[in-house]
């Protein structure tokens, strides 16, 4: 009986061995190594931090980008989006990116002017007239030039996104002329050009974090601020202010940035897929930004306790002329004004 059992085991083993050899399961040659497949067998996670609400042009674009990345990489790359300063605020997000504490951020380009001074050109008042002009500049060769300047600070720039034109809001005193800004404490982003913009009209610029704007308006620590209709509505700034003036005096946009070391660690195939997702998101985002600002402006106009005033063409021209010294300030504080000259060739007179 013992011999029968041993014989049966040996027979089964030989049978399994024969089938395995026939199927090529044993002694199979290893597959040839493919550089493009390096790293593609593991999940890659990207943490993306931004400071605004999800129902804003930037917030929606961040989610759209995450969806497209997962789609284009067949799930190999997962982008986790952290909105509303839930991970980092706009005071510490860039340092976090540099340290590798987060892989991606989307700061305003105004926030980046301390590191890439030439970007101040995008903060100049009344430089653009239409959304189409902004898109041509930010997604064309000029935008590429500006993004390439990030190389000197070892940051990978993926491109620019857009929110829309900025307007002025105030707590108590309506702003119908530039003289109405005199003596007001106006929240601004930390851009020397933006600060100069308010100094010229004899207001006091107060650089503070975006996450603190609502509470500072509520406490009357500031009297006014500049922003897009989508941000004013989504962050509820209208709840702690009474007046808005449609000035369209500047633009609000964002730079999509990635930690350079992380970018360089990615397989080339993944890099191309991320860039494809970025381009598709950008095209979608410009259209979405225009639509959202239009819709949110209408919502603001419908509010009972919030006055929306449209500056007359004559007053807008006076405001524009009053801010001319800001251009002189800009030219005096940059290496050259070639980029400004290129933009002025694109925008309508």
Automatic annotation (TrEMBL):
Keywords: Signal, Transport. It comes from the Bacteria. Pfam families: DctP. Gene3D superfamilies: Bacterial extracellular solute-binding protein, family 7 (3.40.190.170). The keyword Transport applies. Belongs to the bacterial solute-binding protein 7 family. NCBIfam families: dctP, TRAP_S1. This is C4-dicarboxylate ABC transporter.
